[in-house]
TrEMBL record:
GO MF terms held by the record: heme binding; iron ion binding; monooxygenase activity; oxidoreductase activity, acting on paired donors, with incorporation or reduction of molecular oxygen
Domain of life: Bacteria
SUPFAM superfamilies found in the cross-reference section: Cytochrome P450 (SSF48264)
Family of this protein: Belongs to the cytochrome P450 family.
Coiled coil stretches, renumbered: none
Protein's name according to its UniProt entry: Cytochrome P450
UniProt organism field: Streptomyces luteoverticillatus (Streptoverticillium luteoverticillatus)
Amino acid sequence: MLRALLDYHAKGNRHPELTRVEVASMAVDLLISNAELTPRLIANTLHHLLATNAYTTLLPEPHTVAMAVQETLRYDPPLIGWLRVTTRDTRIADTRLPAGARLLLLLLLLGSAARDERHPTIDPDTYNPTRTDAPPLLAFGVGIHYCPGAPLALHLARQTLTNLLHTCPHLALSLPEADAPAHWPTNTALRSPEHLTVTW
Ligand code: HEM
């Protein structure tokens, strides 16, 4: 993909909707997303399955594993917010925003939206890897900038989890979460536990 983007510009294409800065920004997305977000999705899924003891009853089957990964993306996604710039005057709920507002201060809170109490999700603040009432998934964005790496990330997370369930069926936190709560470093965008100490 990077090659295609670079070739596109090398050939003198100057499509107004894909500026040089946007190509650079997408290169950063490509490099960081794979290295940062997919491992964090796997860590978050593993943490919640172990902390809630759901790991021991989860069957290593495509459907159940996919549901667990899906629930992590709702309950505790690795990317909790992303930045925006408004292209025209707009309004979000009761807040008016002028065109060109830099959304460093206007962070789109994907993680929070997935627990919106106005959506009829039962117990939105509970991690439930078997739930069937999840709201539409926001963790990979929406619309024209929807994450192109979503299928790869989902495949890697599901495959890693399936392999772990097969090879380490007795995986457990070294200490129960209640006795040794995981530390989640503060970050405006990325989220995952600092360590996951386990026994098998
Ligand atoms: C769990 C893993 C991942 C999550 C949660 C995630 C999340 C997101 C989100 C929310 C966006 C939309 C940002 C926006 O609307 O401005 C996005 C865009 C993007 N992602 Fe991912 N991503 C993940 C994995 C990946 C992987 C593995 C790749 C590439 C190998 C990737 C490449 C990209 C790129 C290039 C964009 C920019 C698309 C555009 O601006 O049109 N992502 N990602």
